[in-house]
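Team,

Forwarding the record for the chain on the shared tracking sheet. I've put the sequence and predicted structure together so nobody has to dig through attachments.
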Amino acid sequence: MTVPNELLGVGLGFVVGIVRGLLGGGGSILAVPIFIYAFRVAAAPAFAMSLAVVGMSAFIGFLGHWRQGTVNLRVPAFSATEANSSTVTSMSQL
């Protein structure tokens, strides 16, 4: 990596943070191209790093809402149950 690429990557990361904060989502789809093109990371590690970055951001947002008492755990529990049953069903078809 060269210094201009690193500065470009940091600047673009700042823009992604602003967009994610304003819109409440979209961080992963914006972060992956930055990892690939600005930081010259291969695609598979770029997706993994994006998952870690966006996952931590989502967890921090969750903690803020948890402290405010605005978290309804029934909704994600239902979504997780459906996602897990769909995964088990689709994997049994292989």
